[in-house]
């Protein structure tokens, strides 16, 4: 028998911990099941059993017993554990951090300290404060946090004193976050399931008519007569409380009365919370057009000798239709499909589109769902009837699949596939390829604007490449008109944030019952407030950035730490009371739109208007059904959305993304502009895009205008090669954070010099990043460029060892050092 188990805990510590399995649990424990284990003196955690064995660890360590087994059957498959391991190796973090990201919280138990009164003790000798606590615990155990609500003052010390005297008992209980959802049902009690007894009871009811009619309603709905005749209580039909109370003769008080008299009882039935999609009869899939059919065949051919294929198809070429046919084909061969989307905004439309075809075969998994629903999807995937299709955002990679045949990565170029914080800082597109490999599954990357990485892999033959150059239904690509804002300002023609041509086009679009999308990639009212006299601007106290003015809530907000500040009455520097707002955020654009086009109905889609769970859906549906005329938004409106009546798209400030100090600035600008332009004129008439810029001569602006991805690719690849950037080189960034700027600066210098001999010229920094302090921590960054001929395994080992060597020094021990592999 295996006496020991290695347990993975959802913590940032390295490796696993070994525990002893008590003999009565040994035959029950399986790899992949959750176990409850003690850690340190007081903490209790849920971990995953990753290895069972009989090798005793070194003798001097005292091995603790596991406390319990949570699952009879594994909740994580072995291949998932291997996938977690790959992620932690590649992205230089711990497997515990991956576990933490992978499992929904409801599958991880929390330990909380609970206090219970020891009733063997009589309370006579207690002092006043102790007596208060004793009284508060009269009927129930309480968590310290809850106890604090009824007893004032600092009670921790008093409680610990009482615990020492054993007046109260302190223990850690496990609270399960996931409680199955239940619905109350009503039924006749066992005692009254008897015709004679029931009749006698009715005769006592003469004076309470309401109870009589409620009971009669129940008996009718449950088809009680038949059950009584056959003397079989299990034949009673299920009647929910809600159903009963919707009967015109039934009432809630009467039901309570019947319950108190012991005639009816209420019991809970667990329900599946998941709303499944409803298939629409007769929708089925649409036939592919000729071009799409060619692409479809080419994809299948490409998969004959490669696992990954890139589908590069212009906006509105019908990539989604091709995905639908590929899904159909995978299902027909009995395989599961994972459909990855970069953003929740997009899932709304795609869920509807796919739901109508695949109905309840499809499960949806995303971060706006309550955790309980995510647990349900997880449990469904390890049951014997898992969803054949999962549609989800990046974390759905971690769901259990046992028969995966196809992964579709829609909008593969999207940066939101990359998790920024906390670890694991993984890219779901890249990890999807590794996941597919472990299952022998195929991958389709789809986009109108490929990332340079994917296009390079396709051109070099590593991936298959399939292109679609025409829109479905022979609709032309939109016409793009460049407006030189600098010139217009000089001629005093820009009186609003909209060029005169844009004003005209918006007006005529609205007059013709068409719709408009205006793109401004900044939320809030204005990105900077400035004192008119001395130029002072309010900044965050915890971060090294200026605050964004949000007019709707009348506050200044830090977009890095979320802190909010009141708007100063006067400049603290010179006392001038006039602060002016500089630059445009979506709020200010919305105000300008209302002023310029009072006849139009407008909506705004950005982080601030989409916090609620259904907010996206509402905004998108309203626009789709023509309830709004102008949609203003950040990059959320740029991708994947499919509307019928958008004839004009306005890009209000193309320079903003162009002037970011990042080697990917051109690539990003091209992608964002082309994507938002692609929302225009998707049906029938050719769409129009007005692109406002101060730099009309930038090559990337011309590339967008001509929809010339090839030119962008060639031109950018030259730079990337020359400067040793991806996709030729790999980048691993090292971040160091500390409260003390001097310590972090010294640590960064030390670390860089340790790495210098290994990477020589391909190490940049340490530098102060653009925002060099966030949440009171000073930041330094070292960029390591990994040449294609280096052994990446040994590179990783070198980096990890260097960090360990640095952190041995007492002076640097408290510096937080982490890695970001393939940063975006
Ligand atoms: N074969 C087809 N039959 C009928 N309608 C189609 C067909 N192919 C595409 N369409 C319609 O054309 C529109 C654009 O297609 P789709 O949304 O699939 O394009 P896409 O390539 O995914 O675009 P984007 O890159 O902008 O997301 C959709 O409304 C779709 O319903
Ligand atoms: Zn801040």
Q: What does this 3D model show about the protein?
A:
With 824 residues, the protein is of the alpha/beta class. Helices cover 34% and strands 22% of the residues. It has seven domains: 4-109, GIY-YIG endonuclease (3-Layer(aba) Sandwich); 111-175; 182-270, no CATH class; 290-461, P-loop containing nucleotide triphosphate hydrolases (Rossmann fold, 3-Layer(aba) Sandwich); 479-523 and 586-719, Rossmann fold; 527-582, no CATH class; 730-821, Alpha-Beta Plaits (2-Layer Sandwich), CATH 3.30.70.600. Strands 14-15-13-16-17-12-18 form a seven-stranded parallel beta sheet, sandwiched between helices. Strands 19-29-28-20-27-26 form a six-stranded parallel beta sheet, with helices on both faces. The chain has a five-stranded antiparallel beta sheet with strand order 2-1-4-3-5. Strand 32 (773-774) and strand 33 form a beta hairpin. Helix 2 crosses helix 3 (95-102), helix 2 runs antiparallel to helix 16 (428-439) and helix 12 crosses helix 13 (319-332). The structure holds adenosine-5'-triphosphate and zinc ion. Residues 286, 288-289, 292, 313, 315-321, 448, 472, 640, 642, 678, 682 line the site of adenosine-5'-triphosphate.
Describe the structure concisely for a colleague.
With 824 residues, the chain is α/β, with parallel strands linked by helices. It has 7 domains: 4-109, PriA, 3(prime) DNA-binding domain (GIY-YIG endonuclease, 3-Layer(aba) Sandwich); 111-175; 182-270, no CATH class; 290-461, Rossmann fold (3-Layer(aba) Sandwich); 479-523 and 586-719, P-loop containing nucleotide triphosphate hydrolases (Rossmann fold), CATH 3.40.50; 527-582, no CATH class; 730-821, Ribosomal protein S10 (Alpha-Beta Plaits, 2-Layer Sandwich).
